Amino acid sequence: MEGQYGWGTFEDGWRKGPWTPQEDKLLTEHVKLHGEGRWNCVSRLTGLKRSGKSCRLRWVNYLRPDLKRGKITPHEETIILELHAKWRIRWSTIARSHPGRTDNEIKNYWRTHFKKGKMTKNIERARANFLKQQ
């Protein structure tokens, strides 16, 4: 299949761009029936024109029923700051302390609220508190 570049187009037989509600429904139904895993088979079994990696990322980051929706709370932010002082950019390690939040969500939160090179008082305070506890 000849590919075009842009949103919602096909490239090498795979659909690129935003997911449709119908695609989300197909993926959700597939996972309910077959469970997570074997993502490379999803396309063949469901008719989705998405790669296994794309299906896995869509499920993990957006469709899982246990995901928390909405803004990160001040309490969650405090924990992120404290754990960042300890683990730096090990987002998956930090995410384990936030059930329902993904490593990608925490990374994006960090990057949008605490820009690289601009250390805020909160970050310094969290680092100082963490180091005191050591």
Written description of the protein model:
Residues 11-63, 64-114 form the Myb-like domain. It is found in: Nucleus. This is Myb-related protein 305-like isoform X9. The protein has helices at residues 21-34, 42-46, 52-63, 74-87, 91-95, 103-113, 121-133, and strands at 10-11, 14-15. It is mainly α and 134 residues long. It has two domains: 10-63, Homeodomain-like (Arc Repressor Mutant, subunit A, Orthogonal Bundle), CATH 1.10.10.60; 74-133, Arc Repressor Mutant, subunit A. The protein starts with 9 loop residues before the first strand and ends with a helix.
What is this structure's SSE topology?
Elements: E1 10-11, E2 14-15, H1 21-34, H2 42-46, H3 52-63, H4 74-87, H5 91-95, H6 103-113, H7 121-133
Antiparallel strand pairs: 1-2
Helix pairs in contact: 4-7
Protein name: Myb-related protein 305-like isoform X9
Domain Myb-like: 11-63, 64-114
Domain HTH myb-type: 15-63, 64-118
What attributes characterize this protein structure?
DNA-binding transcription factor activity; transcription regulation; 7 helices; disordered N terminus; nucleus; mainly alpha; repeat; elongated; Arc Repressor Mutant, subunit A
What's the number of extended β-strand segments? 2
Q: What is CATH's topology name of the largest domain?
A: Arc Repressor Mutant, subunit A
Number of helix segments? 7
What is the makeup of the main sheet? Answer: 2 strands, antiparallel
Q: What is the terminal-to-terminal distance?
A: 59 Å
Range of strand content: under 5%
The run of helices and strands is EEHHHHHHH
CATH architecture of the largest domain: Orthogonal Bundle
- The poorly predicted ranges are 1-7
CATH class descriptor name of the largest domain: Mainly Alpha
Shape by Cα distribution: elongated
Based on secondary structure, the structural category is mainly alpha
Total individual domains: 2
Taking all Cα atoms into account, the compactness measure Rg is 19 Å
Helix content: 55-70%
Order the strands across the largest sheet as they lie in space: 1-2
Average pLDDT number: 85
Main location: nucleus
Keywords: DNA-binding, Nucleus, Repeat, Transcription, Transcription regulation
InterPro entries: EOBI/EOBII-like_plant (IPR044676), Homeodomain-like_sf (IPR009057), Myb_dom (IPR017930), SANT/Myb (IPR001005)
Domain Myb-like: 11-63, 64-114
